[in-house]
Structure formats: C-alpha cells, structure tokens
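Deliverable D5.2: sample structural annotation.
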Amino acid sequence: MKYFFLTAGWTYNRIWERSGLWNEMVWRRQPYIKSLPIGIIENDQTLWLYEVEDTIIMVEVSPLSDNVKFDKNIGQVVLKRLIDSDQVLDTLIKAQKVVKPF
C-alpha cells in the first residue's frame, strides 16, 4: 500500500497508474483509495491520511469549494510522491498533533 495526507476541504480527482490515467473500463473497477480515521495538525491545517493501492503512481487533488480555489490561487495539485508506511509513521511521530474524527 501507498499513502498520502490530504488537507481537510480537498478531494482527489484523477488517478494515474503506470500506463497513464486510470481507466475503469480496462481495470473493470475503480481504484482502491480509502480515507483512514487518523490525521495530523500541521500549521493550523488538518491533514487526513489516505491509503491507495500500489498500482497508483499519482493522484490529482483539488479543493472542494470554489472559494478555496479563489482564496489560495490553487486550482489543483498533482501528488507525485506517495509515501510508504514507514514514512507515515515518521510523519505521525513528528506531527504537531495527531487527531481522529469524532
């Protein structure tokens, strides 16, 4: 498995695997992406942990709200470096605060 942290108020969009953009017709399923019940607080932002299958190499993320897009001048971001479980543990240990949803 691979992982990434995603800021609260953002979501994932397009997903890439080795041969290109994820194609549900070819794979006959959606990619495995799961929000895990743990997050961290960094610089007054909550970042939630997501788990993805090893086949995924990149994830495009964007804000849920148009207001965030205009306020931050960021329409979308592509995460090219997904992390492994050891990196997740290091991040959790070094985080300002670890949180769980209610």
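Annotation notes: Residues 2-99 form one domain. The chain has one domain: 2-99.
The annotation will be released with the project's public dataset once the embargo ends.
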